Amino acid sequence: MTATTATHAAATTQPSGGGTSIWRQPVAVWAIAFACTVSFMGIGLVDPILPAISRELEATPSETMLLFTSYLFITGIVMLFASWVSSRLGVKRTLLVGLALIVVFAAAAGLSGGVVEIIGFRAGWGVGNALFIATALAAIVGAASGGSRQAIVLYEASLGIGLAVGPLLGGALGELSWRGPFFGTAALMALALLAILVVFRSPAPAAGAAAPAKVSFFASFRALRNPALLTLSLTAFFYNVAFFVLLAYSPYPIEAAAAGAGMTFGAHELGLVFFGWGLAVALTSVLAAPVLTRRLGLRPVLFAMLGLLAVAEAVLAIGIDDAGVLITTVIVAGLFLGVLNTALTEAVMEATDLPRNVASGTYSGVRFIGGAIAPAVAGPLAAAVTPSAPYWLGVGALIIAIGIMTVAGRTLGHLGRPHETAVAEAADIGQGDA
C-alpha cells in the first residue's frame, strides 16, 4: 500500500471537515502521532548534551556539532529518494523500516566510545528518520476520523511537541549521562514500532482504483527544473543555514556567557532554554502561521519572518557575551521559525503542479542539506574568527534567502491559488515540515 493510495482512500472515504472530535481517533492514529513526536524529538535531543559530550569524550565543539551535520545531511539525501522508496514498500513497511533504523542507530550511539562513532550512528539515524517522516502524515490521513484537517492538526501538534520536548528530555537525561538521551529515544521508538506493528492497518484501495504509478528514482532531481520549486528550495536551503546555526551552535556561547556571569549552566538548564525555543516554534507554526498567511498572504509573511529572524541573529551576534540576551533571543527566534516552517511548506504545496510527494520531498531534501552545512561551518568559523561569527553567517544566509525571493519573484507570483483538496496537501506536509 503506497502513500499515494492511502491518500486517495482517505479522499474518497472522509469528508474534509466533519463533526467528529479531534480526540476521538483510532488507536492506530495515536500510535503514529506518538511515533511522530518521538521522531521530531530527535532533532533537538542532542542540543543540551553537546557541551557534555565535548568534555567527556575530549572532542572539540566543531566535532560535536557534526552530530547535527551527519544526521541532517543523510536525512536530506534520503528525502530526495523517499517518494521512490515509499511507492515501492508502501506506507506501513516504510514506517516500520524507518522506526527500526532509528531504534538501532540511537541505541548504537548511546553505546559509542567516541564522538566519531556517534557521528556515524547519527547518520544511520537520519536514514530512518527520513523514511519515517516522509510517510507518517499520509498514514495519519488514511487512518484518522473526522477528516483531513483534523489529521493535519494532529500531525502539526506532534511536530510541535517533539521539537519542544526533545531538548527538555535531552537535558533531563543528560544530567545523568550524555548516553541517556540516546537510550531514551531508542526505547521510546521501540514502543512506537511495536504499537504500529500491532495496531496499524494500511487503508484498502478504493473500489476500481488503478494501481498507483511508481515514482522515478530521479524524480526529485527532475523536479528542480521547475523554477518555482527551485526558488523555494534555495530559499529554504539558506534559511536552514541560519536555523541550524541557532540550534546547533547556541549551546556553546550560552554556556560560556553563563559561566562568565558566575552561573551554573548544565544540560538541564540548556534543555529548559531549548524547550522554550521549541514551544515557541510549536505555538506559532500551529496557531499564528495560518492566521498570518490567510490575512497577509504567503510572500509578505515569508519576507517579514526572514527579516525578523535576521534581526534576531544579529542580536545574538552583538550580545554574544550576555547570557540573558542569548537565552531570550533564542526563544523569541523560535516564534519566527515556527511561522517560516509552515509558510514555506504551504508555499511549496501551492507553487507547482508537480506530484505533491515529489515536490515536497525535493524541497525537504535541499532544505536539510542546507541545515547540515551550518554546524559543520559554525565551529571552525567561531574558532578561527570570533564567537559571534556563526551568527553573522546566519544573517548573511538570510539576506541571500531574501534576495532569492526578491529576484525570483515572478516564479512565485501565482502563490495564493486554492489548494486542490485538503487531503492532497496533507499527504506531503510531513516532508515539508520535517
UniProtKB/TrEMBL annotation:
PROSITE patterns to which the protein is assigned, alphabetical: MFS (PS50850)
Residue stretches spanning the membrane:
27-46, 66-85, 97-119, 125-145, 152-170, 182-200, 228-250, 270-289, 301-320, 326-344, 365-385, 391-409
Major facilitator superfamily (MFS) profile domain sequence ranges: 28-412
Which Pfam families is this protein grouped with?
Answer: MFS_1 (PF07690)
Question: Topology in the membrane?
Answer: Multi-pass membrane protein
Q: Which Gene3D superfamilies match?
A: MFS general substrate transporter like domains
Q: Which domain of life is it from?
A: Bacteria
Q: Is Membrane included in the keywords of this UniProt record?
A: yes
Q: Please give one Gene Ontology molecular function term for this protein.
A: transmembrane transporter activity
Indicate yes or no for the key word NADP: no
Chief location of this protein within or outside the cell: membrane
Q: Name one GO cellular component term.
A: plasma membrane
Cell compartment(s), UniProt: Cell membrane
Query: Which keywords, in A-to-Z order, does the entry hold?
Result: Membrane, Transmembrane, Transmembrane helix
Q: What name appears for this protein in its UniProt entry? A: MFS transporter
